[in-house]
Amino acid sequence: MLVKFKVFRFDPSVDLKPKYELFDVPSEKDTTVLDGLIYIKENLSKSLSFRRSCREGVCGSCAMRINKISNLACKTHVFDVMNDDSVLIEPLDHLQVIKDLVVNLEPFFDGIRHVRPWRIANLNEENVEKPRKIDMNKFLKTMEAKSCILCAACYSDCNVIDVDRTFIGPAALVKVARFVSDPWDSKDGRLREAIDLGLFKCPIDQECEIACPRDIDIRRGVVEWLRYQCTKEGLGPLPTHKRLVQNVLETGGVVPVQDTPAFSLFPEYIKEFEGEPQAEVILFTGCIINRRQQDTCRAIIEIFQNNRVAVHLPKGQTCCGSPFMRTGQRDTMKPFVTQNFNLFNEFAQKGITHVVTSCSGCNSTLRFDYPQLAKEYDIPINFEIYDIGEYMAKIIDLNTEDLKETPLKLMYHYPCHIKASGLEEEIYIDLIGKIPSLELVDSPKSGLCCGGGGGVRSAYSDLSDALAIRRIEIAKDFGVNGLVTNCPFCVISFERVLDLKKAQNEDMGFELYDFYRLFADAYK
Ligand code: SF4
Ligand code: SF4
Ligand code: FES
After folding, report:
1. What is the C-alpha to C-alpha distance for residues 125 and 102, in angstroms, rounded to an integer?
2. Are strands 309-312 and 269-270 parallel, antiparallel or unpaired?
3. Cβ(281)–Cβ(303) under 8 Å?
4. Is the Cβ atom of 262 under 6 angstroms away from ligand 1?
5. How far apart are CA 236 and CA 201, in angstroms?
6. Is 185 in the pocket of ligand 1 (CB under 6 A)?
7. Measuring CA to CA, which residue among 62, 218, 99 is closest to residue 154?
8. What is the DSSP string of 42-65?
9. What are the backbone dihedrals phi and psi of residue 190, each rounded to the nearest 5 degrees, phi first?
10. Ligand 3 and 60: CB distance under 6 A
11. What domains, with CATH codes, occur in the chain?
12. Helix, strand or coil for residue 512?
């Protein structure tokens, strides 16, 4: 079949501005984007410029943006990415265009050079000039990081680089992890250097990881791992992150209490409907919903009551500790894991085994970090953790008949922690789509960071605000009334910048909708 390639064209030596050219490219099941570009160059436009060499995902030279996500052209099949029989091809972002799809990679390689990408030998009297055996188990992280092919796809899709060019970028951090994890490297100031180059600026939204053709675990395996190494070496976390732990230990939560906490507003067991429940859940709210977003807690309870789900709201739950895991403070987690998992185990003894979380940060922490930690602390796990949207979509028989018309045009904001929990955005897109008259506009696939994650809000608030504003502006370009999201961190980030802009008389004319409040209101 013929597939339309819409290709970015720009020759700065003659063109005043870039343009897009359309080419019909014969494509079959195995045709790659690179095959298509070679076809264009050989048959339709000899002047088209792009880089390639190995054609098999090894050299890293053919990275470009394909339908707005950076990837290797030689490893991307046309049929896997085409939309309505067409594919959009653009050069990597954040790098100056030399011609068409060829960019100047110097800023990217400057970052790599900056972190000294060579082994600084760890020689001392004991091991100098003696044969040294490799313990492969100690080299696993080094090996993963070594698989980077320096394609710059992650640099192109990095949200922070878009608003702060002083950030060194994900590939350079991968390089730092490669040497810090290498038992033969002396480390020689590498962690200090990484902090200075922005290790704590990353809100761990994982867009780099999605782009990476080598599937390098950049969020957990590189950024969070390096932060943990900083803590172990006494170099991290940043002072503001240390204070977060102190806040929780002193006050019970990471954010200050605003109004009456949800735990005081609602009883510990809520069943307001007649007859048998279809399910019974333990609601884990997280600090923000308990302390600042009590209306969201009310909405969640209403959604469950409308669906004949009895809710336990145990006041003995405590902060999940997500901000500490994200900022390298793994060793502070024991009290949080112990208190929460012991509580859930007590419920499990009574036959109540479903824990639902309303905060996506709590969900990814309870689901991915806690099990490993619980194993270390010898705590059994006799229950299951669900995200509320996941529970509504997959576990219960959802009442959609009573949903009322809600004429809004919105875009869904997919929280990075929901992504980190391995949950597809379609779960929420489908749920929102069940509300009559609500039009949901497709979201672009990149530029999706609210700026609120990874401890960035507390340490670099200007950077965090810039990311939130950028995300709102991307949505506004699609002509929607607002964003709808299900993460309380995202809600705080967006509401904060909308309020800031209003206070500066620069109203963005945009609304933020909390998924739970929107869904509960649709039942009224
Ligand atoms: S997680 Fe996001 S901000 Fe951090 S390095 Fe990756 S793309 Fe950049
Ligand atoms: S980390 Fe992945 S995306 Fe980034 S340069 Fe290396 S291989 Fe490419
Ligand atoms: S041509 Fe070498 S990675 Fe694509």
Report:
1. 49
2. antiparallel
3. no
4. no
5. 13
6. no
7. 218
8. HHT-TT-----SSSSSSS-TTEEE
9. -65, -40
10. yes
11. 2-102 (3.10.20.30), 106-232 (1.10.1060.10), 252-395 (3.40.50), 409-522 (3.40.50.1860)
12. strand
- Pull the structure tokens for residue 108: 């990217």
Token pair for 501: 């802009």
Ligand 2 mutation pick, 92, 143, 151, max ligand atoms within 8 A of CB: 151
Cα–Cα distance between 225 and 483 in angstroms, integer?
Answer: 32
pLDDT tens, position by position, 414-439: 999 999 999 999 999 999 999 999 99
Going by pLDDT thresholds of 50, 70 and 90, the confidence category of residue 299 is very high
Contacts of 378 by beta carbon, 8 Å cutoff, 6+ apart? none
One DSSP character per residue, 150-177 reads ---HHHHH-HHHHH-TTS--HHHHHHHH
Residues 335-377 pLDDT 10s: 999 999 999 999 999 999 999 999 999 999 999 999 999 999 9
Q: Which of 216, 223, 446 to mutate to test the pocket of ligand 2 (most atoms within 8 A of CB)?
A: 216
Return the structure tokens found at 9.
Answer: 């064209």
Four-point Cα dihedral 44, 49, 50, 55, nearest 10: 50
* Burial class for 250, CB neighbours closer than 10 Å (0-12, 13-18, 19+): exposed
Peptide bond just before 239 cis, omega within 30 deg: no
Instruction: Give the integer Cα–Cα distance in Å for 439 and 432.
Output: 9
C-alpha–C-alpha distance, residues 460 and 449, integer Å: 14
- Which numbered ligand comes closest to the C-alpha of 71? 2
- Taking CA atoms only, the protein residue closest to ligand 2 atom 6 is 148
Is-contact 486 431, C-beta < 8 A?
A: no
The separation between CA 501 and the C-alpha centre of its own chain, rounded to angstroms, equals: 25
Buried residues in 365-381 as b, exposed as e (16+ CB within 10 A): bbbbbbeebbeeeebee
ipTM: 0.94
Nearest C-alpha neighbor of 481 from the set 508, 460, 461: 508
Helix (H) or strand (E) holding 509: none
How far is the C-alpha of 276 from the C-alpha of 309, rounded, in Å?
9
Q: Torsions phi, psi of 212, nearest 5?
A: -65, 120
- pLDDT at position 125: 60
Give the residue among 177, 215, 211 at the shortest CA–CA distance from 94.
211
Nearest to 280 by CA among 264, 268, 298: 268
Q: What residue type is 405 in one-letter code?
A: E
Mutate to test the pocket of ligand 1, among 69, 159, 167, 446 (most ligand atoms within 8 A of CB): 159
Secondary structure of residue 507 in the 3-state scheme: coil
**Sorting pLDDT into bands at 50, 70 and 90, what band is 146?**
very high
H or E stretch including 95? none
Answer for the pair 473, 439: CB distance below 8 angstroms, yes or no.
Answer: no
Contacts of 266 (CB under 8 A, 6+ apart): 297, 298, 301, 313
What is the pLDDT confidence band of residue 260, given thresholds at 50, 70 and 90? very high
